[in-house]
Amino acid sequence: MGDTFYRFFFLIMKTILSIIFILGNLAASVGQKHDNFWIVINPTWDNAPADPPYPAVFFDFTNSPPIVSYVNSLYSLNSQGLFMSDEAGTPLFFSNGYSIYHADGTLMLNGNGINPYPLPISYPFGYPGIAMMMGLPRPGKPGDYYMLHLQWGWDGLYWLVPDLLLTQIEGAMEQGIGEVTVKNKPLISGAYWLEYFNVTKHANGRDWWVVLSDANSDTGVRTFYSLLLGPDSVSTVNTQIIEKYGPVTERWNNHIHPRVFSPDGKYFISLDVRDTLNGIRILPFDRCNGILGEPVTFPFPAGHWGAGGVAVSPNSRRLYISNTEYVFQYDLYASDIASSVDTVAIYDGYIDSFGTTVFGYMHLGPDGKIYVNPGAKWTNYVAKHNQGGMECSLQRRALELTIPASGPPYYPNYRLGPI
Is the pLDDT of residue 9 over 50? Predict the structure, then answer.
């Protein structure tokens, strides 16, 4: 697989890597551009080729909107890939959930064997699911990185999500340098069903809070964990059971979507696309002690396909929720958040060669725009993200892709400072 992957990334990088290095060096004074490049490769849609080459999409955020590159790849992955850059925006490494590679495609030293739990052979391209892994700079250790990853499993009947693992990369100071020194270290192990995690900065502006929950439908208990990642240690600081959060469903019917923190780290926001009573949950978060507050809950406006997305504007005021057919905006500063709802986009019925161009997953890009993935060959984005109502200016089908992107990558707010 290493040789094949090398050829894959060689095809991508030989045409754009030299430009990226130049732009990355020019951007060095800005810093914290770890999310400067996204990669989306998805062989699972109906019209996907059975054999390589596979079409891939590369987003270059040295410009806004990003430059989109189209590349034929000899290798593919499933739903999400982690692509990590240094603080100047220079590409460093990549993971498909099974291995970690340098950006030029060569296997990183000790980089194989990530997520060792065996999966069905129907996932040869990469790890299934979205929002399953995230890269973080190791606090106070230039060139070192943490990779957090949820480990999936399969018992023959059900999917399992029992473990949150940590893998550590050291010495990744430049292209082709670095090695994996800690692999698959359990942070939470043997859970019933770990729901999506997300990450924000500690109040000191250096360390990382990791927040997630274990939903046990046998006991009906959902347990939240707040873990603190420092330079040399990981500790579980808080364990909470939040009764007002809502009921626990069977794991095969768990529709909690990827969670988000507001960019300022003050709110942890969760979306359950099948809960039309309390599907939107906004929990205050204390960046000093890692404690979640009592949630504000209100209905998720279920769409036709039972899917959606969530994102928050860069000023941490505007909450955006999609339900495939609509995009809604809420004011997090309002005394009654639910009543502040405004409809900012309605699906116009457009169908391209890959299917409907509805509103799906969302992610706040490093350029401050909110990208709304329709699952087709187009990406929408919210151009004036901090503005209220229709002034936010959602741009439909603003970026054309070569494949239907299954989901954006998963990054925290690297630029958040201390309190």
Answer: no
Residue 166 and residue 144 in contact, taking contact as beta carbons nearer than 8 Å: no
Question: Structure tokens of 250?
Answer: 């069977």
Residue type for 185, please?
K
Amino acid at 167: T
Output DSSP code: residue 109: B
- Over range 142-166, report the average pLDDT: 90
Place of tokens 């997305």: 309
The H or E element spanning position 404 is none
pLDDT band for 30, please (50, 70, 90 cuts).
very low
- Check residue 305 and report its DSSP letter: T
CA dist 3 and 6 (Å) reads 5
HSE of 56, CA atoms in CB hemisphere, 13 A: 24
pLDDT score for 232:
94
pLDDT of 335: 96
Tally helices (H) and strands (E) across the chain: 1, 28
Identify the burial level of 29 via C-beta atoms within 10 angstroms of its C-beta, where 0-12 means exposed, 13-18 middle and 19 or more buried. exposed
**Model-level pTM greater than 0.85?**
yes
Distance CA 95, CA 92 (A): 11
pLDDT at 208: 98
Going from the C-alpha of 294 to that of each of 119, 231, 281, 405, the distances in angstroms are 37, 30, 10, 35
Closest alpha carbon to 149 in 101, 114, 189, 195: 114
Q: Which residues, 6+ apart, have CB-to-CB distance to 75 below 8 Å?
A: 1, 4, 5, 7, 8, 52, 54, 125
Inform me whether the pLDDT recorded for 224 exceeds 50: yes
In the predicted structure, residue 75 carries a pLDDT above the cut 60? no
How far, in Å, CA of 59 to CA of 367, rounded? Answer: 12
Query: What is the percent of the chain where pLDDT is above 90?
Result: 44
